[in-house]
């Protein structure tokens, strides 16, 4: 059969937002490869997406709506028509609304697709319905709050500026898994002479790309940054001139905060020896353009926002924000490129409804009253696997009186608890508009193959539900492409000067958001706010994480794997095989002390629950830390629970974020 190459975009929650070329034969995608013309993709994809066609045409794809026939969680269903599914949902919701009010219904969605139109398709619908609102705080709101406290809305550098750096710090980022295109540039910079540091809590694969691996105690990076600043100032290496012009509060930071962080104390808090701290401070201060790429792991602690805020102060002290190739990249903010209010339609909400934090779904399902949650509508998310406190979530999902609808591509852990499952299209079957959070690219994608089976996009599904509920609002009748046309017709300052023809034609275009060589700080004071008078704590300091002195001796790292993305890609046998098994990595000393051998089944336990893993004994993990990677589906877990049965519903200091890394466990042979 003749084939044709069509452009698309990777829809997953990854900073790269790669450009895809899809070879299509008839109704099938037969090959997927990286767009060589895409500025950051440069023709190569990660191992997950290199065979995306195996996900799209997986034998596990859901192709028909399903009605539950067995107990919740059993996975027993029978096929029904879309008509029956939609009518049943509308009927059940009418009953719930009549008895409890619409706030008894909660949407639950996150980032199965990052495309703006499909990702946000439910917002207008649930606003119109008057449902409870979801605070989507599972990923990195603490990181954002920390950066904002210092840098306000200042644009981050372009990621390829790293090529101009002579010292690159991969700080709390497993770039070999989560930022491969950036890491490729880091490798180039290193070949040209740059030094690379990897700062983590265990030896991740990213360490192989670095000259130095610096391991810190989980949740202690704020102390590390303060200690480095103290040493830099003490050695007379601070860039006083830069600080005078561009920073607010340097004298206060220097005199009121830094004296509390002498190297002896910082060595104790972080586990990094004093001599090493001194060498690091000197190298950082003497580098011509030190570049920090900050990941999100260290923000998922009780002190996460303050940690990030403190790290964001460090480049100011050496004037690195003023140097090409220097500074700080936590992520790019491209949200202002499109008129989001056209998508979210908050104006459809008659009165503001209550807001429920997605990290606390367990509490919300089990304990909420006035009204209790009586229905959950899950789309492009897998809360039974990805949400903290899995036992609480599963208890909630098991409630017989909870009416659960799951719109999914696969029979996930969550879908097994649904009363009705609706089949979802993949990104190749739907149109969307994408923006990146690691680069400044935006790109439009049109459907490149027809829907698999009877699957429908998020937007099409909400259109059906709106019709069944009699919503008299033309917005819901617009197609995805019409809505994208509308978004592209609203001029936004961030899109000024972009090549609109290229964008319309489906090519990646870069926003001119960051103008090279221009030093501007979009904060209330117009300067870097080392001291921020609007914060409850105007100056940064070290806050201990939740588990600073926990009852459980081993700190649990819930790391990422190159072969999955959160709970996505577990449908793929090839990728699961590469992950090998749901393992728990332990230090040889910790293993020996507990009588645990390599390859043995072990139970990790804490107040939240107990999870069975396969032990992997390795010196790559320091004493006192244990590591598991990936968010496995229960179907493939050694026991009946996965990692999030060990994580808690506690939140971050700012931003109400998740604290996935801030948990202690004890481990014993199973
Ligand atoms: N292959 C793959 N790619 C992904 C994902 C995936 O699951 N797999 N997830 C996607 C999503 S949703 C996101 S948000 C991003 C996240 O991308 P990253 O920010 O890279 O990943 P995180 O797991 O959040 O954290 C990265 C690292 O932080 C380390 N870490 C944990 N605690 C600390 C600490 O206290 N100090 C220091 N210095 N390091 C610490 C962890 O060990 C881990 O190596 O990646 C996206 N891309
Ligand atoms: N232990 C632990 N837990 C974590 C993390 C961790 O590192 N460790 N990471 C956390 C982070 S950073 C995040 S962002 C969250 C992510 O949480 P989620 O966004 O829930 O992530 P996924 O597990 O990828 O689930 C997305 C689901 O959407 C489905 N899907 C994809 N496209 C579409 C579509 O177009 N329509 C519909 N209806 N469905 C679609 C996919 O099949 C998939 O099952 O997980 C968090 N949970
Ligand atoms: S690197 Fe990220 S954006 Fe690129 S193909 Fe892989 S998951 Fe998608
Ligand atoms: Mo995330």
- Overall geometry comes to globular
Question: How many strand units?
Answer: 27
Low-confidence stretches: none
The major sheet is characterized as: 6 strands, mixed
Radius of gyration: 25 Å
Helix count, per DSSP? 22
The mean pLDDT is: 97
Strand line-up across the major sheet:
5-4-17-16-15-6
* CATH topology group of the largest domain: Rossmann fold
Write a concise synopsis of the structure shown.
By secondary structure, the chain is an alpha/beta fold.
Task: Describe the protein's architecture and organization.
The chain is an alpha/beta fold and 670 residues long. The protein folds into three domains: 66-139 and 336-510, Rossmann fold (3-Layer(aba) Sandwich); 157-330, Dimethylsulfoxide Reductase, domain 2 (3-Layer(aba) Sandwich), CATH 3.40.228; 554-669, Barwin-like endoglucanases, CATH 2.40.40. It is built from 22 helices and 27 strands. The strands form seven sheets. Strands 5-4-17-16-15-6 form a six-stranded mixed β-sheet, covered by helices on one side. The chain has a six-stranded mixed barrel with strand order 22-26-23-25-24-27. Strand 18 and strand 19 (441-445) form a beta hairpin. The radius of gyration is 25 Å and the shape is globular. The mean pLDDT is 97. Bound molecules: ligand MGD (2 copies), iron/sulfur cluster and molybdenum atom (MO). One ligand MGD is lined by residues 13, 110-113, 118, 138-139, 379-382, 386, 407-410, 412, 424, 458, 558, 560, 565-568, 631, 643-644, 647, 660.
